[in-house]
Design a protein that fits this description.
Elements lengths: L5 E6 L10 E6 L2 H11 L4 E5 L1 E3 L2 E5 L2 E12 L5 E16 L7 E6 L20 H14 L5 H4 L4 H11 L4 H8 L4 H25 L1
Parallel strand pairs: 1-3
Antiparallel strand pairs: 1-8, 2-7, 3-6, 4-5, 6-7, 7-8
Length: 208
C-alpha cells in the first residue's frame, strides 16, 4: 500500500485507533467537515492523534494512527457520520502552514511497517484469560457493556486492540498502548494497567 507523507490530522482527547480496527465518528465542527470534504476527493486518509493536554489541543503526541474513511453518511442537520478503518501508526515530522481550517502534517510510517500485517501467532487466547477477567470486573463496575462473545471471535491482535481502545483509561495510558512495539508488548502493558485499575477499585470498595 502506498501511504502518503502528508495527511490532515484529527486530534481527539482520550481516543485512539489501531491498524485493522474500525471506529465510527460523528463529525460536526466546520473545520473537520472541511477536512472530510477534502479527503473524500482523494485518498480518504486521516490521521487520528491525541492532544497531550485536553485543554490545549495544539500540543500533540508525536505518534498517531492513520485511518481510511470506509463509510460516509450525511445527516439532515449537516453532520457527517463516518467510519474510519485503521491502517498504520505514524510519526509526526512537522506541521504545515496552510490556509485550511484543519491541521496538516508531514509524517512518516517508517517505524511501523509491520502494522500493515496482523500478527497471528504472537500469543495464545489462553494468555488473555486474566485480561478478560479483569476487564469484565472493571467494566461491570463502571456500567460499560461489551459483547464479549463477539469479541472472542476476533483475531488476537484485533481483540487486544479493541479492548485497548474501549478501556476507560487516561490519555497517557492509551498512548502507552498505542506506542507499544508489538502486540505482545501491548498485551503486557494492557494487563499491567488493568491490574492497577482493578486493585484500586478493589481497595476503594473494601474501604467503603
Amino acid at each position: 500500500m502506498n501511504l502518503p507523507n502528508k495527511i490532515p490530522v484529527f486530534p481527539l482527547n482520550n481516543f485512539i485507533i489501531f491498524p485493522n480496527t474500525s471506529v465510527p465518528l460523528n463529525i460536526f465542527e466546520p473545520r473537520y467537515i472541511e477536512m472530510v470534504n477534502d479527503v473524500m476527493k482523494g485518498n480518504r486518509i486521516i490521521g487520528m492523534i491525541q492532544p497531550k493536554n485536553k485543554d490545549e489541543i495544539h500540543s500533540l503526541y508525536n505518534i498517531g494512527c492513520a485511518g481510511k474513511i470506509s463509510s460516509f453518511q450525511e445527516t439532515e442537520d449537516g453532520r457527517y457520520l463516518i467510519v474510519i478503518k485503521g491502517i498504520s501508526r505514524f510519526k509526526i515530522e512537522k506541521e504545515l502552514v496552510t490556509a485550511k481550517l484543519y491541521r496538516e502534517f508531514n509524517i512518516n510510517f517508517n517505524d511501523y511497517s509491520k502494522d500493515l500485517t496482523e500478527e497471528k501467532k504472537s500469543i495464545n487466547f489462553s494468555d488473555l484469560k486474566i485480561i478478560f477477567k479483569n476487564f469484565k470486573y472493571l467494566l461491570d463496575k463502571m456500567g460499560y457493556l461489551i459483547d464479549w462473545k463477539e469479541l472472542e471471535k476476533e483475531s488476537l491482535e484485533r481483540t487486544i486492540n479493541e479492548l485497548s481502545m474501549a478501556a476507560p483509561f487516561s490519555s497517557e495510558e492509551k498512548q502507552i498502548l498505542l506506542e507499544s512495539k508489538n502486540i505482545t508488548d501491548r498485551k503486557e502493558k494492557l494487563q499491567n494497567i488493568l491490574k492497577t485499575y482493578v486493585l484500586d477499585n478493589f481497595s476503594n470498595t473494601t474501604i467503603q
